[in-house]
Amino acid sequence: MQIGFVMQTSLVTARPDETVADAIRRMVDAGVGSVAVVEDASLVGIFTERDVLKLAAAASDFERVPLASAMTRNPITIGADDGILEAAALMGQRKLRHLPVVQDGNLVGMVSIRDVLGFLAERLFSEKDERAAETARALLGRSAN
Predict the structure, then answer these.
(1) Which secondary-structure segment (H or E) carries 139?
(2) pLDDT for 69-84, tens place per residue?
(3) 37 domain-assigned
(4) Cα–Cα distance, 12 to 83 (Å, whole number)
(5) pLDDT tens-digit profile of 11-51?
(6) Which CATH number does the domain housing residue 135 bear?
(7) What is the C-alpha to C-alpha distance for residues 116 and 111, in angstroms, rounded to an integer?
(8) Looking at residue 75, what DSSP letter applies?
(9) Residues 6+ apart with CB under 8 A from 82
């Protein structure tokens, strides 16, 4: 199964010249743990919950810190046609919770560790025990489609 099957295509983005506070507000409003940082439609970085924690520990003023100075530049990406198992292995090896999906140089989605693990757990349980699959879907907030 390809990563394009589980990736989120409703992207939360920001520009590098915006502030960290702007990015945090977008993350909170969308209920996501990362923001894709784009410049002229190209992915230039990623800003995640972990970055927020690092800044908070340093007592940074979120309204003054430019996103460009707090983001991870040139993030690791994966293609929409790459396999879910490949994505899971990459995320595990690199300790990533969010992985931008790029196709032909364009940002097309974002996949989270929750997306990958949810798919894998659902798949495992659906083949073995439908009740377990329903429980996994409910915990992950997914419909039974």
Answers:
(1) helix 130-140
(2) 999 999 999 998 998 8
(3) yes
(4) 23
(5) 999 999 999 999 999 999 999 999 999 998 789 999 999 99
(6) 3.10.580.10
(7) 7
(8) -
(9) 2, 3
For residue 145, tell me if it sits in a domain. no
Structure tokens at 18: 């915006």
Is residue 116 within 8 Å of residue 6, measured between CB atoms?
yes
CB 71 within 8 A of CB 19: no
What is the full DSSP assignment across 10-70?
S--EE-TTSBHHHHHHHHHHHT-SEEEEEETTEEEEEEEHHHHHHHHHTT--TTTSBHHHH
Q: Which domain holds residue 33?
A: 3-140
Count of domains forming the chain: 1
- C-alpha to C-alpha distance for 127 and 85, rounded to whole angstroms: 17
As a whole-number percent, the residues of the chain with pLDDT over 90 amount to 50
